Amino acid sequence: MDHHYDIAIIGMGCAGSHVVQELLRHKTTLKVVVIDDFKAKSLEKTWSYWEKGTGRWDHLISHSWEKGTFIMPTDLIPLDLNPYVYKTIESHDFIAFAKAELQKHPNFSIIEEKVKSVSGDEIRTVHCDSTDITTNLVLDSRIDPAFFTDTKATSLQQHFKGWVIKTEQPAFDPEEFVMMDYRLIDAGTTNFTYVLPFSTTEALVEFTYFAKEIVSEETYEKYLKKYIKDLLQIESYTIEKTEQGIIPMTTYRFDQHHEKNLFKIGTAGGWVKPSTGYSFKMSEKKAAQLVNNILNHQVLHHQMNSKKFRFYDDIMLDVLHSDNGRGSKVFHTLYKKNNIKKIFSFLDEETVFKEELEIMLPMTSYAFIKSFFKQLF
Ligand SMILES: Cc1cc2nc3c(=O)[nH]c(=O)nc-3n(C[C@H](O)[C@H](O)[C@H](O)COP(=O)(O)OP(=O)(O)OC[C@H]3O[C@@H](n4cnc5c(N)ncnc54)[C@H](O)[C@@H]3O)c2cc1C
């Protein structure tokens, strides 16, 4: 039974690494194996998230900000985040840390291979490229192929291209990041620029869409160049790094793919916040709940999802989906009428109904009411 494990985690990206850290935090004696070929792009992302004050991963973060801005052509909203801090962590550093930690524990092991399939029922067999293992429980970050052909869910793609640029002269305020800048837009869809300044001469500038279709490389580059030249007024710079990706923003019910002794995690388990595309912090929370459920012999989906917040996410997605050009107006109202602390708390799914009403009432428009009733029935 050398190749039998209590838990097999497929994928050590954002979700898999959080689950590993959480199992380690509980000093589990369960026999755990992590399977990943470590070839995915997940090793090279810049993950941003917010949290109050100091946090568990502060020794790994590459930068943090206490102030931000939300920008419209005719409005600039300063965002005083205190007590929240917006933080950035390199995915490579986070995953490498989790990997190094697990290697200190003899009950944890890693198989550096791709999983081809999972079979069995009570005891699961995981078939990798050249190894087969058996396990009592699979935690699986592979997205079910049915998601990509589904036509019933409301889905947008958060897609973006960003450049880390370096200038010779000081051009950025490293104390303040730009959450969303709508001064330069590709009309008809929701899109904005996001800026993370790392120093006075270095920043990540990202052109981002929340849209149905992706765009060509030339389109991203046209807007990036224009933003840097016209709005940042930078003539001369070098591109140090490129970041590009697609994150699903969807009402798709990923939890339909849980099976007996196989539980989907990460994007594959619906751990990405549908209305924002953020998942780092959400994955930390979900991993904590899941590990708690495992160790306490609870059903695995116990307290994993909030129906109420799914409902809000579904409304927001429906509004953006049915009139994709409205995004700047929707987000402007959100940031204008609410302070950022309340918005963060709402997105973290930590608000109570009274606060949710305060956030949503000013956003109420015909589109919101229509989506509200569409989601209700
Ligand atoms: C460029 C970019 C920037 C982003 N920035 C942010 C951000 O700022 N903040 C934020 O919260 N989110 C961000 N995201 C989203 C975030 O990266 C994802 O939501 C998150 O990584 C999803 O976690 P996951 O574990 O499901 O998938 P991943 O992190 O992609 O990990 C999946 C892992 O599974 C492995 N795997 C897949 N198939 C197999 C198989 N068959 N066998 C073995 N292993 C397998 C892969 O190798 C990979 O390591 C960003 C995404 C991108 C693309």
Explain what you see.
With 377 residues, this protein is an alpha/beta fold. It has three domains: 4-41 and 89-148 and 251-295, 3-Layer(bba) Sandwich (FAD/NAD(P)-binding domain); 155-249, 2-Layer Sandwich (D-Amino Acid Oxidase, Chain A, domain 2), CATH 3.30.9; 307-376. The protein is built from ten helices and 17 strands. Strands 1, 2, 8, 9, 10, 11 and 17 form a seven-stranded mixed β-sheet that branches. The chain has a seven-stranded mixed β-sheet with strand order 6-5-13-14-15-12-16, sandwiched between helices. The protein has a three-stranded antiparallel β-sheet with strand order 3-7-4. Helix 1 crosses helix 5 (280-295). The longest helix has 16 residues, at 280-295. The protein starts with a strand and ends with a helix. The structure holds flavin-adenine dinucleotide (FAD).
